[in-house]
Amino acid sequence: MVCTLCLFTACNDDNGSNPELGGPYELTLYAPQMAQYDIDLAQSQSLDLVCTYPNYGFPTTVNYSVEIALNEGMTDAIEVGSYSSPTMSVPTKDIAIALTTLAMNAGKTEEDFPMELPAYLRVVARMVSADNLTLIEKSRVNSNVVKLNNVKLEFSLPPVLPPTEMYIIGDFCGNNWDNGLKMVPVYDNPDLLWHMVFIDANGIKMNETQSDDGAIGFDDVTVTGDLAGDIVNKDGRIASSNPGWYLAVLKTVVVGRDRIYTLEMRKPEVWLMGTVTPGGAWAEFEDGCMFEVPTTADGEFVSPAFTNESADDSGVRAYVKVGSSIDWWKSEFRVFDNKIDYRGAGGDQDRIKGMPGQKMYLNFTKDEGRIQ
Known about the structure:
Layout: H1 2-12, E1 29-30, E2 38-40, E3 46-51, E4 62-69, E5 78-83, E6 87-91, H2 92-105, E7 115-128, E8 135-142, E9 146-153, E10 167-169, E11 181-182, E12 184-186, E13 189-199, E14 205-207, E15 221-224, E16 231-234, E17 237-240, E18 244-255, E19 258-266, E20 271-273, E21 301-302, E22 317-319, E23 332-336, E24 339-342, E25 360-363, E26 368-371
């Protein structure tokens, strides 16, 4: 055991006092019996593979990655599985997704499927570090390439849909994805997401995941709306020449397998609704019902004072208008437990009481709110 640990150290820290890991090594992938026959990926569950243990000259922990390609040179290879044993069972659904991706990369379209084609497999082995966290690249060894003579392939990529989640970061949150804003879905409009956001000269970026990888910036969207003229490109980010608050409405249209993003920049208008208003008539854009807009990212939107006590079946409600043909309640929200509670794609919300003279305060940067 002590000797093995020393060898691991040598692999990870080659500093002159430690020996370099030797090579070359040998690794043989045995052709599966079904390789010479037609393989219908839609009618099978897995492809079983066996390879030899790589000849490192001593026992060690090894990771085995299975790669598949459309050419024998493996220049377009995609990994379809990672295993800790030289006996591997690769799900055919993973193979189908990889081959569909490769075919699309080669210029095929969805209309070209189903198709029959040859495919090529190999196994890549690497030693695993002593902490089981790192693959030691200098120990890499590729197996021989095995041909699957005829693979029957149906189109296997999932449908492309509008994003159901989108996060926004900028200076307002220290550009930290963990503290970013999560856009709100619009009820009965799966192609729309919105959020009130403070945009400054350094700009914002967006992503489906809380990560810089694949983030959406200025060049990825078409900017429209009343305030579109304020929006500029700052190092690829969506920035403003007139820093302030914007009602950002993201519309996604799917064309083929591409998403086309339109970012509508609307005026940062928030409206009070319900029986607490002067008219109490459930009218959009009622006079005297628009919130005051703050001038800083950490400022609060403040409603006018409530005129009436809210009816039991109404409560205190507020909304933004995300489109002229979309009803106000599809982008409404309320305040519960000091948090802004967005309706989003969900059903009707609980009620909260409002009394004359009270106001609603909203911090959209923190998604916090209060009534007092």
